[in-house]
Structures are given as structure tokens and as C-alpha cells.
Task: inverse folding
């Protein structure tokens, strides 16, 4: 059952507030990248990925790799909102021995496919998964969400080349193009040639969408693969720190965690409470 | 050893339909048989070692048993983080094969020297590290590491290495008695076993009979045999084609530091902590840095006289 756009919008405000609350409580987190990819995550988990909540290793599930590990508050909050993990677990974010460390880890949260934290591995591993599933004749998809900063890594482009050459049309890569990295703006660091053109040059089909437009996100996902035999890249143009005016497009909020005042201001702007 | 590897790989693929072979674009005309018999399971990642490892990791997640293959220096140092983060940390059943380790490619320059591969791989938690000494040892050990279903680094020599004789069975994790003797024990790793045997043969004429043990498994180290040797010999000579850190010498020293009442003298013969310049031939290199059969015999003589 597809979740409607007005409901997704309500969920988005609540999961955003949850991320901010988690970062505040734990004094850990990377809010820019967590808030920017939340709308994509909500569509994936609510309306698109084939998930088996009671059997997370089901062979027919879509394999989803969340490669931007620093943004895991977003992943945790969306999974909790979707009741894939208990909501009260969010209170344990980044605590010692918590199932929710500040870069996610499959050993502590087995519902995940893959750990992350070091950038530039997700696309390569997802391509190996996609190749294996093709060899096994599976219909499931290998889906990976990358940060734009990860596209600085050479290993991302080794993977892009491989996926193109192997014609992995069961592979969908979504780039959270929030244009802000850890210390500077992405476009300044990767040059003027856009990500869509880069992926196309590597033998992919690629589209650029507004990564906060639920209809556009679902539309792009539903079109994948755009062509038989080609892996599909969705460049989701997003806003770093999306949803909170004083965080948006600020490099500062890659690292900063919110104070009590920041928390109150965010709550007032989002008109929402954390879900835990 | 590489032909033998190709044969055993093809044989293992026949017994395990989840075995896949991923090359970093190396092994020209070596794996023709495998490729012919199992085209769907032969994958060339290109000159992209990071992708070779991450492809293997992804396939392992799906229940495959991938073998990733490249020249030892490129297989280990280049994609080190992929091995550490995407194979060792998730404990995936990937066997990484490094061909031509040590100074196999001594004349090709520092880029091709892999005098640090055993150390790089041993340092990773949960990694099994195996360096066979001849085609026979390789043929027996490869199926054993495949069965582990945990991360493995396995080395394969070049072409035409001789086979050495030993009555001892070839068991993963167990040092192999090559020549029984007394006084001094020579502990070899990988192809250094041949120089150790030759040294022993030269010494026999003088009535000296050092023991020779082959430590094909560096990690986990066979500390049971080590403890026995330390008790029964006055000195142990570790012979390795590896920098002083991270190889068999390091492993033996780590063990000895905590071994109770060990009064046995420990000696190392091997290359120095340096990049080897000048592109010497492998035999020249071993002689120059004092770890060829002549140097081994000389050191034994000094210790046994």
C-alpha cells in the first residue's frame, strides 16, 4: 500500500525532528547529510523497496546499502518510523554498546545489509551484490544511497565503470547531491562536469531530480532501469540541513550538534516532535 | 606453482558451484581452463583492485565464495582498506590470492616487490594468512582455506618451482616437519623452504643436521610446535623473504616474548627494512642480504660449532 504524499510530508517533519533530537542528546551526528537524504529514504522505505519486516533476510528482499554512514541518524529514524526497529532504540543512538552507533554497523544491527563510515565502498559492494543476484536469477534489486562527497573517491568510479561494463540493470544508485561536504562545497571540489554526465560517460542511465519532491523521487525510482542493460543513477538534488532554516546550506552543520536553543527553534519551525 | 593453482582452482570450482574467480586483469593464459568451463564464474574487474575486492565482498554477501586474484603487491597494499573494511570487518568468506609475493618480481622494481604482504594481511583481525612453499603444499592447502568460510590471504608463487619431499601431512595451521635434526631448527615460510633444505644438505657433509620446519601458515601461528622446538633446540633461525616487521619473524618474536622459560636463541635471516633498489635477480638479492642457502648454512655453522 503506497503512502500518500501528505502523509509522507508529516512523516518527514517527525523524522527530521527525531534526527535533530538524537544529535542533540548524543552530541554526535552529521545533520546536514542526514536531513538532506530523508525524503529519499522515506520514499524508499515506505513506497518502493521490497522489505520483509518479519524476515529481514528474505531472499526476495531488495538489498539496500546506505553508504553515507555519517548520516545514519536519518537511516535509523526512517527505519524506526517504519517500525523496522523499535522507536525507543533511537534514544540509544551513539551510546556505548548501542545497536545504533554513530556510523551504522551490521554486527550491532543485523537488520542492515551493510555497515558504513568509510566513504566510497557502497557502490562497489552493491555492484557485487547486483552481479551475484543476476547470476542467481533473482528479481530483487540492489539499491545504494551515496553522498556526493563519496563521488570524490576513486573507488566509486571504479565501481561505476564495472557496473556499466557488466550491464548491471538491477543496480540503482541514488546520489544525495546536497552540495555540501565536510569542509567545503561539492561543486568547488569535483569540477564543473555534473554527476549525471559523469555516470552517463561510464555507461549508465542517469536522471537528475529534486530530491525533496516525493512525486519526482518515486517517479524516478519507478522508471529504473530506464534502459535494459544499463545501471541507473538518480542524482537527487537536495538541500543540506533541509527543513531547518538556520541549518540549510551551511557547511558548519556537517559537524555541529544542536544546543537546547537550536532544538527549540527547530521544533518551532518543523512543528513536530521526535518519534521516541 | 601458478599452473598448479589454476588446476586446483578449476577442480575446486567443479566441487563448489558457489565458487567465483575475480581477477584484477592478471593471469594471462593461466586460467583458460577455468574460464572455458565456468565462464559465468570468471569475472575480470579490470585494473581496479578496489573494485575487485568490493565485488568479492558483494558476492560473498549473496552467499558466494569468491576468490580475488592479483599480483601480491597490488592485491594487498593497493586495496588495503577494502580488504580491511569490506572483507575482514564483516568477516566475509573471501579468499584473496596474491601471486608472486616477496621478491618473485625482484627485477621489476619496487612497485612489484611484495616484501610486506604477510604483515599487511596478518595485522587484520580474523584473517588467516597462508604462504605455501611449493606446488604440492599449495594444492593441499588451497581446498583447506576454502572450507574456512572466513577471510583468507593465500599466496601463490610463479612458474616452475620445484617440489620438495616431506612425509608430513600438509595441514592448515600446522608447521610441517621437513627435515628432522637437532641443535638448531630452521623455520621457513613460503618458498624459503627450498633454501633451508639446500642449507641442510650442504651441512650434512660436515655432520651438522639442523632441523627444518616449514611454517606455511603465518596466522594463526602454530605455537604448539614452536614451544616444542624452543625446548628441544638451542636456537631457532627464522628465514623469511619479508621485511622484519609483520612476517614470520615478527610472529615468532611475539610468541617468544610471552613464552614461559624460553631460553632458546632467536635469529633472523631475511631482507632489511628497506625498499630494494637496483633490480637484482632474486638469487642475487637473497645472497646480497644474507638469506640464501649459503648464508643459512653459514649461520647454522656459527651457532652449532
Result:
Amino acid at each position: 500500500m503506497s503512502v500518500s504524499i501528505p502523509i509522507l510530508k508529516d512523516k518527514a517533519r517527525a523524522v527530521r525532528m527525531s534526527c535533530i533530537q538524537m544529535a542533540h542528546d548524543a552530541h554526535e551526528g552529521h545533520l546536514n547529510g542526514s536531513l538532506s537524504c530523508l525524503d529519499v529514504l522515506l520514499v524508499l522505505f515506505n513506497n518502493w523497496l521490497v522489505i520483509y519486516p518479519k524476515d529481514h533476510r528474505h531472499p526476495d528482499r531488495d538489498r539496500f546499502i546506505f553508504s553515507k554512514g555519517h548520516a545514519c541518524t536519518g537511516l535509523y529514524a526512517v527505519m524506526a518510523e517504519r517500525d523496522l526497529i523499535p522507536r525507543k532504540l533511537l534514544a540509544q543512538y551513539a551510546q556505548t554498546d548501542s545497536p545504533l552507533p554513530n556510523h551504522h554497523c551490521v554486527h550491532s544491527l543485523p537488520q542492515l545489509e551493510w555497515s558504513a563510515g568509510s566513504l566510497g565502498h557502497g557502490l562497489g559492494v552493491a555492484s557485487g551484490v547486483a552481479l551475484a543476484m543476476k547470476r542467481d536469477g533473482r528479481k530483487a534489486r540492489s539499491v545504494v544511497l551515496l553522498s556526493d562527497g563519496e563521488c570524490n573517491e576513486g573507488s566509486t568510479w571504479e565501481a561505476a565503470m564495472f557496473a556499466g561494463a557488466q550491464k548491471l540493470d538491477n543496480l540503482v544508485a541514488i546520489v544525495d547531491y546536497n552540495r555540501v561536504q565536510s569542509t567545503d562545497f561539492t561543486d568547488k571540489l569535483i569540477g564543473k562536469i555534473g554527476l549525471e554526465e559523469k555516470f552517463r560517460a561510464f555507461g549508465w542511465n542517469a536522471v537528475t531530480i529534486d530530491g525533496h519532491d516525493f512525486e519526482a523521487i518515486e517517479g524516478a525510482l519507478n522508471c529504473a532501469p530506464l534502459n535494459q542493460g544499463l545501471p541507473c543513477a538518480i542524482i537527487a538534488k537536495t538541500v543540506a540541513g533541509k527543513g531547518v532554516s538556520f541549518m540549510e546550506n551551511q557547511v558548519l552543520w556537517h559537524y555541529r550538534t544542536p544546543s537546547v536553543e537550536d532544538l527549540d527553534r527547530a521544533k518551532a519551525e518543523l512543528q513536530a516532535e521526535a518519534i521516541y | 606453482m601458478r599452473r598448479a593453482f589454476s588446476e586446483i582452482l578449476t577442480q575446486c570450482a567443479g566441487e563448489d558451484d558457489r565458487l567465483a574467480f575475480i581477477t584484477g586483469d592478471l593471469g594471462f593464459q593461466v586460467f583458460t581452463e577455468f574460464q572455458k568451463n565456468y565462464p559465468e564464474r570468471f569475472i575480470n574487474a579490470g585494473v581496479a583492485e578496489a573494485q575487485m575486492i568490493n565485488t568479492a565482498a558483494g558476492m560473498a554477501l549473496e552467499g558466494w565464495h569468491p576468490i580475488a586474484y592479483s599480483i601480491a603487491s597490488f592485491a594487498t597494499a593497493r586495496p588495503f582498506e577494502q580488504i580491511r573494511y569490506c572483507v575482514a570487518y564483516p568477516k566475509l568468506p573471501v579468499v584473496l590470492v596474491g601471486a608472486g609475493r616477496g621478491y618473485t618480481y625482484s627485477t621489476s622494481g619496487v612497485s612489484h616487490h611484495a616484501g610486506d604482504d604477510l604483515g599487511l594481511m596478518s595485522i587484520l583481525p580474523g584473517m588467516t594468512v597462508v604462504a605455501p612453499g611449493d606446488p604440492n603444499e599449495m594444492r593441499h592447502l588451497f581446498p583447506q582455506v576454502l572450507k574456512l568460510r572466513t577471510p583468507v590471504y593465500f599466496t601463490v608463487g610463479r612458474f616452475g618451482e620445484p617440489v620438495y619431499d616431506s612425509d608430513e601431512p600438509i595441514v592448515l595451521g600446522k608447521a610441517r616437519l621437513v627435515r628432522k635434526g637437532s641443535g638448531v631448527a630452521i623455520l621457513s615460510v613460503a618458498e624459503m623452504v627450498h633454501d633451508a633444505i639446500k642449507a641442510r644438505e650442504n651441512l650434512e657433509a660436515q655432520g651438522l643436521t639442523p632441523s627444518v620446519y616449514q611454517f606455511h601458515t603465518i596466522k594463526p601461528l602454530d605455537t604448539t610446535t614452536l614451544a616444542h622446538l624452543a625446548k628441544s633446540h638451542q636456537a631457532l633461525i627464522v628465514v623469511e623473504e619479508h621485511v622484519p616487521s609483520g612476517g614470520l619473524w615478527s610472529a615468532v618474536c611475539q610468541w617468544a616474548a610471552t613464552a614461559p622459560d624460553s631460553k632458546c636463541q632467536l635469529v633472523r635471516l631475511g631482507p632489511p627494512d628497506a625498499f630494494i633498489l637496483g633490480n637484482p635477480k632474486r638469487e642475487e638479492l637473497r645472497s646480497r642480504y644474507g638469506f640464501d642457502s649459503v648464508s643459512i648454512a653459514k649461520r647454522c655453522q656459527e651457532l652449532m660449532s
Remarks:
- Strands of chain A lie at 63-66, 142-147, 171-177, 205-210, 232-237.
- The CA atoms of residues 18 and 257 of chain A lie 13 Å apart.
- Chain A touches chain B at residues 63, 106-107, 113-115, 118, 121, 124-133, 135-136, 142, 154-155, 158-159, 161-162, 165-166 (CB under 8 Å).
- The first strand of chain A starts at residue 63 and ends at 66.
